[in-house]
């Protein structure tokens, strides 16, 4: 109540101050002699006046920028300075910030959600929808740190969630960097690093703790605790065991030093066939024994090699890529949201082909299943926006619902066999769906609508055939606003355009320019195959009545995407301000001319001169 009252007083005081300043401004305007001001200004040439006005606008604009940047707190400036290391990643949209940050990490077996809660997959679910109540991440609190600022972002390429928290201490930036990920190839492993950088002249004490899990049974093993729990479910039960590195509690970082602490958690789970009908104690004891054994083994491994395994696996998953140029138009889909959505899907999906412990015989069967890609993806491009496939993920329920809709959509549109290969097949199906591309008898068809090609886009890393090569295609827009293709391949592949009327071209690593053609009725605009003869035969099966070059896009539409305004390169507020300024300037000149004419001192047609002229003529 006191806070509400103080806020009300603050706003009343602000309102009174504004009223006082307004009265002073009105009084100042009343004291100005407009006639003298007009005469003074009218002596200046128009060109000089225009230069002065432009200079004033430029100074005001620069002051506005400096004022806006100077409003950040010292701690916020520290965060921005540390964040510069990821500026390039922000530009290529490979990290998620602001509304595109994804505070979720997972590998399909284990996950950590927005609330830092451990999640598992149960009952054959395709997503990590089972909340456990266990929080594996540590809490870091700087003792006496004072005011702070922080930023959280997601690295989509290597599957990491990072947090930077800074304090301004004695004119220095004391920062805590937190990073966590769920290992991509070691399905049971969660890794977290805490780095404390203390450039100040005095030591810093941090409190590093882990919340005590509620409802879990704790058993001490050496210096660490093993937590176990059995979750009852419909017709089955899920037993889990977790062991984590101990949190040190109070930790001191000496002056002019930086310290890095590493914490790991090992999670094992097993789904039982009956619900509370059998004794789960032997299973729980076995899980506890397994996590202790794996935890001991991991502590002997070199941390950098464990990190490299994870990073390399994520880079393999991200080898099929899709790019969409940045649009400044309102309410449109952009690349950062696409990459964030792909990251969410991959984090909820197992990647057995990349996991170390996956049996070799099952691996080969899964690879064969992934090759049965016929008719994937058999629908219009998923770039359609807005739709149920693209929405915010502020809450974990929204994130999981979106992932479930995506997986279901890909399954029902011909990609079910590819999804059986896990995340490796899912990422290919995801890129195909965005590209409007689908596999057909030994070739790939790209069926994007030409009317949607008003932004540059591309896909790459799409395999054609078995071990033949990967295709890449990019849609560009020339000076005449007409879209065209640049197509390349890592192996010997062949391509032809809409209708396939022209001779197929041989693709190499150097992009080949191809004209985009549209047909009537509408068919695919690009065909890529492993054999030239296959495309020549395919030409006979494409039955169209008309083939024409793709029409040019309207300049206003391209300007809207490139600049956020259909007018052109400058924002709408600039043109509004410029027009207002010109109107005011000409109104001012008209006022000056009217005042001079009303005075009658310098005009050649005033009554006095007119009377003298008539008298001279009478003589």
TrEMBL record:
An annotated GO cellular component: membrane
Main location: membrane
Subcellular location: Membrane
InterPro entries: K2013-like (IPR018795)
Transmembrane feature ranges: 49-68, 572-594
Signal sequence, start to end: none
A Pfam family it matches: DUF2152
Membrane topology note: Single-pass type I membrane protein
The entry's keywords: Glycoprotein, Membrane, Signal, Transmembrane, Transmembrane helix
Protein name, UniProt field: Uncharacterized protein
Annotated organism of origin: Cylicocyclus nassatus
Source lineage: Eukaryota, Metazoa, Ecdysozoa, Nematoda, Chromadorea
């Amino acid at each position: 109540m006191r806070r509400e009252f103080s806020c009300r007083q603050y706003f009343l005081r602000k309102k009174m101050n504004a009223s006082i300043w307004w009265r002073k401004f009105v009084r100042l305007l009343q004291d100005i002699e407009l006639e003298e001001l007009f005469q003074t200004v009218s002596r200046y040439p128009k060109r000089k006046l225009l230069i002065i006005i432009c200079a004033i606008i430029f100074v005001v604009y620069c002051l506005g920028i400096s004022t806006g940047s100077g409003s950040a707190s010292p701690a916020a400036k520290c965060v921005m300075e540390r964040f510069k290391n990821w500026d390039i990643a922000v530009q290529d949209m490979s990290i998620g910030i602001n509304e595109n940050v994804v505070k979720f990490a997972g590998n399909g077996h284990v996950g950590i959600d927005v609330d830092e809660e451990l999640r598992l997959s149960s009952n054959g679910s395709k997503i990590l929808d089972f909340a456990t109540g266990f929080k594996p991440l540590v809490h870091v609190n700087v003792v006496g740190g004072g005011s702070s600022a922080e930023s959280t972002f997601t690295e989509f390429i290597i599957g990491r969630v990072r947090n930077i928290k800074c304090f301004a201490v004695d004119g220095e930036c004391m920062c805590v960097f937190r990073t966590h990920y769920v290992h991509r190839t070691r399905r049971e492993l969660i890794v977290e690093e805490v780095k404390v950088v203390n450039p100040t002249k005095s030591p810093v004490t941090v409190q590093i703790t882990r919340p005590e899990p509620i409802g879990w049974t704790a058993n001490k093993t050496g210096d660490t605790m093993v937590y176990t729990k059995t979750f009852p479910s419909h017709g089955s039960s899920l037993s889990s065991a977790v062991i984590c590195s101990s949190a040190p509690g109070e930790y001191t970082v000496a002056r002019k030093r930086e310290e890095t602490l590493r914490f790991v958690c090992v999670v094992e789970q097993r789904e039982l066939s009956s619900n509370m009908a059998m004794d789960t104690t032997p299973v729980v004891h076995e899980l506890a024994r397994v996590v202790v054994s794996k935890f001991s083994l991991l502590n002997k491994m070199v941390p950098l090699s464990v990190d490299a395994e994870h990073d390399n696996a994520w880079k393999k998953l991200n080898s099929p890529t899709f790019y969409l140029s940045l649009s400044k138009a309102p309410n449109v889909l952009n690349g950062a949201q696409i990459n964030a959505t792909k990251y969410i899907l991959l984090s909820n999906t197992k990647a057995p082909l990349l996991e170390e412990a996956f049996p070799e015989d099952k691996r080969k069967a899964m690879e064969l299943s992934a090759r049965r890609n016929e008719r994937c993806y058999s629908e219009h491009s998923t770039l359609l926006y807005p739709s149920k496939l693209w929405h915010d993920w502020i809450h974990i329920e929204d994130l999981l619902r979106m992932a479930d809709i995506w997986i279901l959509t890909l399954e029902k549109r011909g990609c079910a066999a590819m999804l059986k290969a896990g995340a490796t097949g899912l990422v290919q199906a995801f890129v195909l769906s965005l590209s409007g591309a689908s596999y057909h008898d030994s070739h790939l068809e790209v069926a994007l609508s030409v009317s949607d090609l008003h932004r540059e886009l591309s896909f790459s890393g799409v395999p054609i055939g078995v071990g033949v090569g990967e295709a890449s295609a990019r849609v560009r827009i020339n000076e005449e606003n007409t879209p065209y293709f640049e197509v390349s391949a890592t192996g010997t592949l062949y391509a032809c355009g809409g209708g396939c009327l022209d001779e197929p071209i041989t693709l190499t690593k150097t992009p080949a320019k191809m004209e985009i053609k549209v047909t009537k009725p509408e068919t695919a605009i690009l065909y890529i195959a492993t054999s030239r003869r296959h495309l020549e035969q395919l030409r006979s099966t494409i039955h169209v009545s008309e083939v024409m070059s793709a029409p040019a896009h309207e300049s206003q539409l391209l300007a809207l995407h490139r600049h956020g305004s259909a007018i052109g390169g400058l924002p709408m507020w600039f043109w509004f301000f410029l027009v207002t300024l010109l109107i005011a300037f000409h109104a001012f000149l008209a006022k000056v001319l009217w005042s001079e004419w009303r005075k009658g001192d310098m005009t050649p047609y005033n009554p006095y001169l007119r009377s003298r002229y008539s008298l001279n003529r009478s003589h």
